[in-house]
């Protein structure tokens, strides 16, 4: 996982995920499949629109 703006920790494809229920102890996530990006290690991770601190990037694979 990586936060928007952080250096990419691992090259490959990443998908944006948003926490759907920020108020519960067991988080549920919503994946935005239209936001799959290909990144190289060390590049800054892109911002995620409508991010209010509940969004991050999840690594999908190479």
SSE layout and pairings?
Blueprint: E1 12-19, E2 29-39, E3 55-61
Antiparallel strand pairs: 1-2, 1-3
Write down the secondary-structure element order.
EEE
* Mean pLDDT, all residues: 88
Strand proportion, as a percent range, falls in 35-45%
- Provide a count of the helices: 0
Overall number of structural domains: 1
Please give the alpha-carbon distance between the first and last residues.
14 Å
Low-pLDDT stretches are none
Helicity level, as a percent range? under 10%
Number of extended strands: 3
Roughly how many Å is the radius of gyration? Answer: 11 Å
Which structural class do you get from the secondary structure elements? Answer: mainly beta
* Sequence of strands across the biggest β-sheet: 2-1-3
Descriptive keywords:
62 residues; mainly beta; three-stranded antiparallel sheet; 0% helix
